[in-house]
Design brief:
Helices cover about 20% and strands about 25% of the residues. The chain is an alpha/beta fold. Strands 4-5-6-7-8-9-10 form a seven-stranded mixed beta sheet. Strand 5 and strand 6 form a beta hairpin. It is globular.
Length: about 220
């Protein structure tokens, strides 16, 4: 039997189209943020219900196994996982996965400017630092230009420039920017990255995530 592990940073709606959920021979595990108000399973049921979606959670061929997380550490096979709440409206987690000598950090829906009063000058006091520090690969929210961010403060996302500053502060080896604004073209995203990195002396790689990309860590 095959299985999938899905780490939920907040509650996205589009995972209802995740094909393995409808395959009875596949077991799916959801790991997501706990809150004091409502169990994770109830929040997931909202998306698996009319009028948002025609299939109910109880109608899936195999009910997913749901794990509620907070600031914690646990292991899945040989992979150690650290989860930590990050700055975003509503319960949202960042994840740090360690296997052998490799570290992958995943922080989506993260507003860096709201997570520190002195960003990026005080790493230990910056929300998300412990998740990303010295990571071989960091996936990070980079939804806006610096100008756009000034009109969207409190929305829970970061600018490309801030994400790069965060990567530098955390001394990551490679930074992959995602959570792109969906209305942008590839050319616009590339121009954003070019403009945000010009005149910067960086000792790590910065790139844009795209659908279908595969990353390997040794």
């Amino acid at each position: 039997m095959s299985f999938f592990l899905i780490f939920i940073w907040t509650i996205p709606w589009d995972w209802v189209f995740f094909t393995p959920l409808y395959n009875p021979s596949i077991k799916v595990h959801f790991y997501g943020p706990s809150t004091s108000n409502e169990p994770l399973v109830n929040r997931l049921r909202r998306y698996f219900s009319p009028p948002l979606f025609p299939v109910r959670l109880s109608e899936l061929p195999r009910h997913p196994i749901i794990h509620e997380l907070n600031n914690c550490q646990f292991s899945i096979g040989e992979v150690q996982v650290n989860s930590e709440y990050v700055c975003h409206p509503g319960a949202t987690l960042g994840y740090r996965l360690t296997a052998g000598n490799s570290v992958f950090a995943y922080i989506s829906d993260h507003e860096l400017q709201m997570g520190s009063s002195n960003f990026p000058n005080e790493p230990e006091w910056t929300n998300g630092y412990e998740i990303a520090k010295s990571a071989d690969l960091l996936f990070h929210d980079a939804a806006y230009t610096s100008k756009e961010y000034m009109t969207k403060i409190g929305w829970g996302h970061s600018s490309v420039r801030d994400a790069i500053a965060f990567g530098k502060m955390c001394k990551v080896k490679r930074l992959a920017l995602f959570h792109h604004e969906p209305t942008r073209s590839d050319e616009q995203l590339e121009q954003m990255l070019k403009k945000s990195t010009q005149n910067l002396k960086l000792d790590f790689e910065v790139e844009l995530c795209a659908e279908g990309m595969v990353y390997e860590l040794e």
